[in-house]
Amino acid sequence: MKIEQCDVVIIGAGPSGSVAAALLLQQGRKVIVLEREQFPRFSIGESLLPQSMEYLQQAGMLQAVVEAGFQYKNGAAFVRGDRYTAFDFRDKHSSGWGTTYQVQRANFDHLLAKEAQRQGADIRFQHSVISVDVESEKPSVVVRDADNNEYRVEADFILDASGFGRVLPRLLQLETPSNFPVRGAIFTHIADGIAAPDFDRNKIRITVHPEHCNVWYWLIPFAGGRCSIGVVGETEFLKQYQGSDSERLHALVMEDPASCQLLKNAKWDTPARAITGYSANVKSLWGKNYALLGNAGEFLDPVFSSGVTIAVKSASMAAGVLQRQFAGGRVDWENDYAVPMKKGVDAFRTFVESWYAGDFQRVIFHENQQPEVRRMIAAILAGYAWDESNPYVADSKRRLNTLEEICV
Ligand code: FAD
Questions:
Q1: Which residues form the signal peptide (predicted)?
Q2: What total number of domains does the chain contain?
Q3: CA angle, corner 167, sides to 356 and 296, nearest 5?
């Protein structure tokens, strides 16, 4: 079998893989990225958070993203019945970017991959990683290309950025179940035809189901009069809806009077898709000769659009640890990578749990809200879940519990 060598092999060219590749190239590393699909390819996860802009900038990709003409985004709006509350991410506790974009991921991921290639990344599309050896002195992966040829890539380190493919968690038996109930999503893209003058295209719109507080819809406007629309609920709940995924999604959306009115001129021109059981966890985010990035590690839940931000943050942190490792310094992957990474993910988790219990919904729709507390919550919703100057990060569970008790 043919053997190739590099410094770091990256599995997957989604946001975490492309950003990691660019950052390692900046350090002068030889990187090979192996990507199972041909790009552009569909992916879910279309509403970015402003915190992600910092890592796109670090990776030298920001200008290309800004110039691509994606829908500008400055916040998140929440709707429940006749209640509406909007967070403007420019008015937030943490410093840093307050705006970002809503993106068709096929275009966005392709753009990031092309940016990584422009910087010198060797990205091999339609090359799937099928096995891995992390125990040998030089870790390696076996790759199968589109013509069924197999070859081995040896490296000093492996980054698994394979997202829902979860290559190393599967091959190394690292998977552990998520604590969340099994939920699913049904979603599509539509020509939204929204004419309502008060509709804010610059914000993701999250609507709570009129009867079930643990079922919610997303409406993510894109540039050009289209949007992504989806519904999330426990799989047992979604099973009650019969027919094609398009019929099920349409029936669910029409149950919310405000969405029904807002989308009265919409053209449902794209077949819906469904995904279930996407929440996942692992025993460890690293091991001998490897680390897991983005969704290949833990995936929480889509409600606060945190996935891509976590993905590119993890790429940046892992690239920093690798830089010290390659320079011969002492690194401790647990304390330098896994612990700080999980700190932010756990802050998001507190908010996700509270959302599904209905408590966070009570907080954000409450009539009397302190502006400073709202700015702290806005910072987390904007992705600044690692900023320990925010009490809702540093002590998220206790602070949020207290707030929930006040907002009865
Ligand atoms: P991915 O983007 O999944 O990329 C992984 C890549 O690895 C893929 O291109 C895949 O083809 C490749 N790969 C897989 N297996 C192999 C293999 N064996 N060999 C080689 N390559 C392989 N996030 C947000 O930020 N905003 C949102 O609004 C949002 N909404 C979501 C809605 C739903 C319903 C769900 C389920 C998720 C949502 N997310 C959202 C999360 C988002 O989809 C992910 O967190 C994000 O895509 C993770 O990026 P990644 O780079 O880790 O992995």
A1: none
A2: 2
A3: 35
